Amino acid sequence: MICSCTGVILAGGLSSRFSGRDKAFLPIGGQRIIDRMYSVFKNLFEEIILVTNDPLQYLEWDFKIVTDIFPIRSSLTGIHAGLYFSTNPYAFIAACDAPFLKREVIEAIANQNDPRFDVVIPETSKGLEPLCAVYSKRCLSPIERQLAVQDFKIRRFFPKNRVKKISEQLLRQKDPTLLSFFNINTPLELARAEEIISTRGNDIKKDHV
């Protein structure tokens, strides 16, 4: 199946916690996170957009590469840019630091897309997952108004839009341990990802080929 929306990956740039290295290029089990994500996205989306403020690093992939329109580095400005440059009315948006994001989870979220809603977002016991969600271009105006006052909290614009939440029960049918929502933000989490690969490598590998 090819999802009808655009697939957007937010590449946040340099991370002080990793000595200035871009998290997208961190290796997990010998494979860079960006390679893992691209292998999933290329089988789902006809259009893939990468949002980055360092485009030259990503020329080897078949992305549409765009940069933030608002000159402030944040996840919300990345969502805005991905939506703005999408040729589809909807975009599935994910952060570049999710090495175990499963194709089945993306499909489950995208399949719940509904013109009556502006955001389709997973909700687990840990809360909403705004960087693994579908957004409508109708979100552009409220995001722009929010960015204009330098409010960068993604969830702050949700009350201005129609939001559909995807239950944890449905998500666990596709990903029983919810590893799709595991993000690499610290060296400790990177070490934990390596442990996961060493114990569950064969199961995870089939999702990233």
Count of individual helical segments:
6
Order of helices and strands: EEEHEEHEHEEEHEHH
Low-pLDDT ranges: none
Estimated helix fraction: 25-40%
What is the tally of beta strands? 10
Write down the CATH topology: Spore Coat Polysaccharide Biosynthesis Protein SpsA, Chain A
> What is the CATH superfamily?
Spore Coat Polysaccharide Biosynthesis Protein SpsA, Chain A
CATH class: Alpha Beta
Cα radius of gyration in angstroms:
16 Å
Shape: globular
- Work out the count of structural domains: 1
Q: Strand portion, in percent?
A: 15-25%
What does this structure look like?
The chain is of the alpha/beta class and 209 residues long. It has helices at 33-41, 75-85, 103-111, 140-148, 168-174, 187-205, and strands at 6-10, 27-28, 31-32, 48-51, 64-66, 90-95, 119-124, 127-128, 132-136, 163-166. The model has no long low-confidence stretch (mean pLDDT 90).
In short:
This protein is 31% helix and 19% strand. It is of the alpha/beta class and 209 residues long. The protein is globular.
List keywords for this structure.
single chain, 209 residues, alpha/beta, Spore Coat Polysaccharide Biosynthesis Protein SpsA, Chain A, 8-stranded mixed sheet, two-stranded antiparallel sheet, 6 helices, 19% strand, globular
Layout of strands and helices, then pairs:
Blueprint: E1 6-10, E2 27-28, E3 31-32, H1 33-41, E4 48-51, E5 64-66, H2 75-85, E6 90-95, H3 103-111, E7 119-124, E8 127-128, E9 132-136, H4 140-148, E10 163-166, H5 168-174, H6 187-205
Parallel strand pairs: 1-4, 1-6, 4-5, 7-10
Antiparallel strand pairs: 2-3, 6-9, 7-8, 7-9
Helix pairs in contact: 2-4
